[in-house]
Amino acid sequence: MLSSTESRFAVDAVCEAALVARRVQSELVTEALTKGDKSPVTVGDFAAQAIVARRLAESGMTVPLVGEESAADLRCESGAATLEQVTHFVRTIFPTATPAEVCDWIDCGAREPGDEYWTLDPIDGTKGFLRGDQYAVALALVQGGRVMVGALGCPELEKACEPNRGGVGTVLCAVRDGGAYWRDLDVSGCSPSCAWRRLQVSGVTDPAGTRMLRSVEKGHTNLGAIDHLANAMGVTAEPVGMDSQAKYAVLAAGGGEMLVRLLSEDRPNYREMVWDQAAGSIVIEEAGGRVTDLDGKPLDFAKGRTLAANRGVLATNGHLHDAALAALREIGA
């Protein structure tokens, strides 16, 4: 099921970008890093997007890339030092890359989505990356507003659901109507001999047993409302704290039953970016789960760079979805 040109490209590109991100983390995230300094993740974001964009150009596919980053700041004098670092890491894959080429590759992601596009979050989980914890490289192919292929590279996640700093990591891939699978990220270079294993969500049906996957980063959702939601559902199981779309991998692998992106009280009109949800959503769906917005509507990826037609996100193992939607209505979320 993972033999199509698109799925092979997605896996190879995500593996390469994730391993470069790991290299950036190991070299730049040190104890000497001052609090609030996000420069390592900035370098990793740019390098990963440049690499994926270059690989997409080489693939012969004419589908555009919609990425999170723009090279505008790197082209300014104030961005020269960052560009030098980004180019250094890109050259670990493309030894002859020039700073100008790196900027051009990054800017391939600045396009507006059309009917068909790839969307990339080069490093999802800024705080996790800086703590040496969970982060993910997320790449997905969208056609007609639906995600058709999605891949996640999770360097600090083992067996798709076990946090393990410095371990072998996990790459996951899902194809619409073709299932979702995982294998080791393979630090030796993503050997094709690595066996793929099928992902399957958990079979928990009792809301009390719902393990809620919750962001460590408090600014990403409405924590108070999540507590109200858990109470409304009668949840007694301990939540699982985790950054990034690694949560989506864990849910798909049966390591949790629900995650929710509620609207923060100070940003009631916020809409999710397509790259924050595309890859993770298809991985969960193809593992047997269900993903909608807070009103129960399917996510619509045909409205530009945001999910403009959707409020928040609810993902579950499927068995608990209706109960979660009912609880959301009860608390007025």
UniProtKB/TrEMBL annotation:
Keyword Cytoplasm: no
Gene: hisN_1
GO biological process, one term: sulfate assimilation
Listed cofactors: Mg(2+)
Protein name: 3'(2'),5'-bisphosphate nucleotidase
Source domain of life: Bacteria
NCBIfam families: bisphos_HAL2 (TIGR01330)
Family listed: Belongs to the inositol monophosphatase superfamily.
UniProt entry keywords in alphabetical sequence: Hydrolase, Magnesium, Metal-binding
A Pfam family it matches: Inositol_P
Taxonomic lineage from the root: Bacteria, Pseudomonadati, Planctomycetota, Planctomycetia, Pirellulales
